[in-house]
Specification:
Layout: H1 8-21, H2 24-31, E1 37-41, H3 53-71, E2 75-77, E3 81-82, H4 87-97, H5 103-127, E4 138-139, H6 143-158, E5 162-172, E6 177-179, E7 184-200, H7 203-209, E8 219-225, E9 236-239, E10 244-250, E11 253-258, H8 262-269, E12 274-280, E13 288-290, E14 303-308, E15 320-323, H9 329-337, H10 367-380, E16 384-397, E17 405-414, H11 434-443, E18 446-448, H12 452-462, E19 466-467, E20 469-470, E21 481-483, H13 493-514, H14 517-521, H15 523-526, E22 529-531, E23 535-536, H16 538-543, H17 545-553, H18 555-558, E24 565-571, H19 578-590, E25 595-601, E26 604-605, H20 622-628, H21 631-640, E27 647-648, H22 651-671
Parallel strand pairs: 1-2, 1-24, 3-4, 8-11, 9-14, 18-25, 24-25, 26-27
Antiparallel strand pairs: 5-6, 5-17, 7-8, 7-13, 7-16, 9-15, 10-11, 10-12, 13-14, 17-19, 20-23, 21-22
Helix pairs in contact: 3-21, 4-5, 5-13, 6-13, 6-17, 11-12, 11-19, 20-21, 21-22
């Protein structure tokens, strides 16, 4: 019997139940017992919110590939997974219960919330006809996976890749935490540009550098910036040693500017200028200038020395860059390489975005709101040359969509290039750097479509060290004890990591949270050490799943396979996400990629090519389509689409798919 009508919305739920009742997935495994394995490792969706059409496309593609390999004679396993820790879940809990929860409370509520979300998503994935090991998925919050992650972290340390550093890292005020490169997106932001004058502290030395006997007026170096809030923390000025600088006589004193930008600057400032002398930047190194608020408040009575740096260019502005080492990577590197001590770096901006309460003139103010106040103070001090509003591309937090800043914070990093790690095990350090290992691994990976290779290669080639620590509660702990005076790690750190992994394996991350320093270190040592409350960032969780899931919790299924999965399959945004973090961790742990092939698909878009989103209201909802047309229609739409690019779907497109489905059905009926 093969009825004319599919009646999919009514009949499909029965099929799904029947497959589950009969243990179909297990029967498929038994039928291929001993056959060569095909492993598609599931990129874990995040355990938060209902599934959307992008999830549906992803899971259906995985299902089709796995079933096709099964039919070709492979033992094609599919173990679904979930990413369970991290900030979006903490945010959901804070919205519901407020921000003042204890760590224990936050962890308990987060675990319960993630469990609920997984149950809801699992039903929706099964309803799409996806077969897999649904009774035993991997979850990054399972105790064994959390413990496996600590063991992976220990191994990365043994191989010499982990170090602690004070460095400017991306910082989101809404997250209250550092962000990794993967968690940044760029969007337009309105900013105020300003040109600010720094007065020469020793005019005679400046005159000599320009080959003049003396200066007839006050002289100033002028900088251009888009971040007014960084000026109060200025500690240096950067000039390019190879650029020619001019000393220009104007109505507002003598100004030092890049020679090629003098004309532009005069127009911008509304001044007429005469060039008195020129000199190469290298002649100006070491000269000192006064902070622009030097005469306004004793807290700013400091000097900014000139450091020579190639990143000062004459592309725009004035050819001179002001340097606040806590708030810019190049500024930081330049100041430290010129001998500025780490504890001398000014870092007044707190984690919530406000200046420290005791910070002169601007204490307690939020930096974005302080911008006009800073500009007004500079204007009153006679140090503001001009300002202008601009719109420019600026880094934003991809969760909150709010602007982020660079902010210096002591964090744990995975090193990309040469250098020493903490607790490197003798003889374990690879001969190549992590960057070299990862770039080599890309050469041994197949990419579908091929252009993914260049994309991942460029991202690895240019990325900075990976900041892996976060200042949150819901995540895998960094189980360190730091000396209260020196900040050094406890000499038994590597043993403590094994202890921590064993504790977490029995009772989850909550059990480690409750452990006291006395229990681990003994009463005598505990007095001298602080227990770190940092956690590993969530990309470390999912990036290490090949280690703690494929080769850990689910190893029995995969035991007779080589080290890599055959395929990772995700949206093309994962070149900077899961593909990226997995590659770095597998390279650090094992010197190779965790996958043989990478397949990427596009985003789901509407018929006008706009990405489907709740805010635009242009999405089609898989749950609704299942009820109205049936999951088979979604599957046929996915099968009929060229998924190497974006995948267009709306009611009209799906109506055409329904039409095609009817024809296929009627043809089958006719043949029968």
């Amino acid at each position: 019997p093969f009825p004319m009508r599919g009646d999919l919305p009514k009949r499909e739920p029965g099929w799904v139940k029947e497959w589950e009742d009969k243990g179909l997935y297990k029967r498929l495994r038994d039928a291929r017992h001993g056959a060569p394995k095909f492993i598609l490792h599931d990129g874990p969706p995040y355990a938060n919110g209902q599934i959307h059409m992008g999830h549906a496309v992803n899971k259906i593609l995985k299902d089709m590939i796995t079933k096709a390999r099964q039919l070709e004679g492979f033992d094609a396993l599919y173990v679904p997974g979930w990413d369970c820790h991290g900030l979006p879940i903490e945010n959901a809990i804070e919205k519901k219960h407020g921000r003042n929860l204890s760590r224990d409370d936050m962890q308990a509520k987060s675990r319960a919330y993630a469990t609920e979300q997984i149950a809801q998503q699992m039903v929706d994935f099964q309803r799409l006809g996806v077969l897999g090991e649904w009774d035993n998925p991997y979850k990054t919050m399972n105790f064994a996976n959390e413990a496996g992650e600590i063991r992976a972290f220990k191994r990365v340390m043994e191989r010499g890749f982990v170090y602690r550093g004070l460095k400017p890292v991306y910082w989101c005020f809404d997250c209250g935490s550092s962000l990794a490169e993967f968690e940044i997106e760029y969007a337009d932001k309105k900013s105020t540009t300003l040109d600010v004058a720094f007065k020469a502290h020793e005019p005679a030395k400046l005159a000599a550098a320009f080959g003049l006997p003396a200066l007839a007026k006050d002289a100033f170096v002028v900088i251009w910036t888009t971040t007014a809030w960084t000026i109060p923390a200025n500690q240096a000025l950067n000039l390019n040693p190879a650029l020619t600088y001019a000393l220009v006589d104007t109505e507002r004193g003598l100004l030092v500017l890049a020679e090629s930008l003098v004309e532009d600057c005069m127009v911008r400032y509304g001044l007429t200028g005469t060039v008195l002398a020129t000199a190469l930047g290298e002649k100006l190194g070491g000269l000192e200038f006064e902070h622009p608020l030097y005469d306004v408040d004793a807290g700013y009575r400091r000097l900014s020395p000139v450091y020579l740096a190639d990143y000062a260019t004459a592309d725009d502005g004035t050819g001179i860059v002001h340097s606040s080492p806590a708030y810019g990577l190049e500024d930081f590197n330049s100041c430290v390489s010129h001998g500025l001590a780490l504890d001398a770096i000014l870092n007044p901006v707190q984690g919530n975005g406000t200046y420290a309460p005791d910070f002169p003139l601007f204490g307690g103010q939020h930096i974005w709101k302080a911008v006009p106040v800073v500009i007004e103070a500079l204007r009153n001090a006679g140090r503001l040359m001009t300002t202008k509003e601009i719109t420019h591309s600026y880094p934003h937090c991809w969760r909150h969509k709010t602007p982020v800043i660079y902010r210096a914070a002591a964090q744990w990093f995975i090193r990309m290039d040469e250098g020493e790690g903490v607790f490197t095990k003798a003889g374990e350090k690879p001969a190549k750097t992590l960057r070299q290992i990862a770039l080599d691994a890309i050469e041994h990976t197949s990419f579908y479509p091929e252009n993914g290779k260049a994309r991942l290669h460029d991202m690895i080639a240019g990325r900075p060290d990976w900041c892996i620590s976060r200042q949150r509660s819901w995540g895998v702990p960094i189980p360190f004890f730091l000396h209260k005076d020196s900040g050094e790690l406890h000499p038994r750190t590597m043993d403590i990591m094994d202890q921590a992994a064993d504790i977490v394996e029995k009772g989850g991350i909550e059990a480690w949270s409750r452990v006291t320093p006395e229990e681990i270190l003994g009463a005598e040592d505990a007095v001298c050490y602080t227990k770190s409350t940092d956690i590993l960032e969530v990309w470390f969780d999912s990036g290490s799943t090949f280690f703690h899931a494929l080769r850990g919790t689910h190893a029995p299924q995969f035991h007779d396979r080589g080290p890599e999965a055959d395929l990772y399959l995700e949206g093309h945004d994962q070149h900077r996400g899961w593909f990226h973090s997995s590659l770095l961790l597998a390279s650090a742990l094992e010197g190779r990629a965790p996958y043989r092939g990478l397949l990427t698909h596009g985003f789901t878009v509407d018929s006008q090519g706009r990405k489907m989103s709740k805010s635009l209201g242009n999405g089609i909802d898989p749950q609704e389509i299942n009820k109205k047309l049936g999951a088979e229609i979604i599957r046929l739409w996915v099968a009929a689409s060229d998924y190497s690019g974006d995948i267009a779907g709306d009611d009209k497109i799906l109506a055409r798919v329904v039409d095609a489905y009817r024809r296929i059905r009627n043809t089958l009926r006719f043949l029968l």
